[in-house]
Amino acid sequence: MGSRLGALIHLVVLLAGCRGFPINVQTPKPLQVDVTMRVDIHQHKTGAAGDAETGAPTADTDTSDEEVRRRARMSEVQTGKNSRLLGENRNGLLTVIRLPPGAYGQRIEELVSAENADRTALMTAQAAARRVPLATVEAEQAAEWRSRAFPGEWIEEQQTDKTWRWTQKQASGAPPAVLGPPAPAQQ
To answer: Between the CA of residue 94 and those of 11, 80, 88, what are the distances in Å?
Structure first.
């Protein structure tokens, strides 16, 4: 038992003498987090008096048919942009950049035609409600679509010499990619 006690004492002394390896968890400079966020706030009117009292959700009575159709095709439009088939032009409308062959190409053309018809109707209504020229609303919408575009999507941008050029939107600080001739037809 004495040898066991001696071994146990040696083990305790040995373990007490080990401090382990020092681990530094500090960073040389503070971490930086770069976050870009967009918040859209929409106010919806309530329907009947009972709905206003209970706070129950009501149907989107203020949502136009054009907005409903645009919401329904939103993912298909984004897929076309992600595939670099579609781009946002200077009039706030979609343009076909590259048309795939066959039935899929025909579907892309139908998609662009339907989306542009609804966008045009909404912009025309907004211009009339605000009593401004349609070109003003188109320019505002085009700027909004350009700002919302993801890196890599095709957008039509005005150059310093006042000409328009198709470029792929880049992440901040990256040089733009330019679409070479021929330029796509306006939709």
So the answer is: 76, 10, 5
